[in-house]
């Protein structure tokens, strides 16, 4: 039976991928609440929703495995405000992603098409990027793990109100010392997801550029696509993909923050986002009052996550300046030698490639 074989194949892939450290965006949250605003990809229910895209020209690069479905809900975010993407490996805020999967995180926006489809063409502009932090020797993915899968995103000043697709992209480099086009068993692994938000309030009227096509954003010759993170010595990783978009036009600098609480600092470029979420989440500051929203129903296949907001009880004497050397973080610092000698491979991926899916 074809269906039986397909089921067994899916099961095998699921078991194989379950042992690997892929990742996906499970849901979003903001001060407004928690929302299942993620567009479900074509593999959402077969155990491979967390699998990477390796063909950089594939339509899957837009929002993950195509076709993607319109999100169940849309997350409201006040203009000038921020929200969080909640990542997971197999379930939200579990081990998030394998520690081997070092790489940068990029966030793009594009207007949500009226018909609910995924944006196509040169419509995405980058609003946030976090690569390699030479000071702490951490990649964005390292910080994402430390932040228990919470990636904060700040809306840029001047962004017009309206509905947007948030395209989140992690580029895992553990096999990026080869090009997928030359060796399909290896290559940079792109973890791509789209979510839907509505920017409310009096947004700005800026336009942002450059705008890129997600299927043309990265090529084999794009700096950072081919990169050996195991070479030793100082890591000098370029920004992957285009620069952060710059705003032009009226209200290019104020956005909608006039009507909202000005507590949100200016969007921190590059490396600070995940870091700030990691360090700021436990702090009892005003804009971190993420109340669990009763409307969010966990996927029935998930084991309920007992520790959604752990590591909070350090608040009382915490100074405003986050100091890295808090005691419990010690085990998270990976020994460079250990990761350098270990070159994990995604066997699940190879199976997929071997079977013609990629
Ligand atoms: Cu993986």
TrEMBL record:
Region (Disordered): 247-358
Residue span(s) of domain Auxiliary Activity family 9 catalytic: 39-231
Cited Gene3D superfamilies: 2.70.50.70
Protein keywords: Carbohydrate metabolism, Cellulose degradation, Disulfide bond, Polysaccharide degradation, Secreted, Signal
Transmembrane domains' residue ranges: none
EC numbers for this chain: 1.14.99.56
Signal peptide: 1-21
Enzyme superclass (EC): oxidoreductase
Biased composition (Basic residues): 342-358
One Gene Ontology term, aspect cellular component: extracellular region
Domain notes: Has a modular structure: an endo-beta-1,4-glucanase catalytic module at the N-terminus, a linker rich in serines and threonines, and a C-terminal carbohydrate-binding module (CBM).
Name assigned to this protein: AA9 family lytic polysaccharide monooxygenase
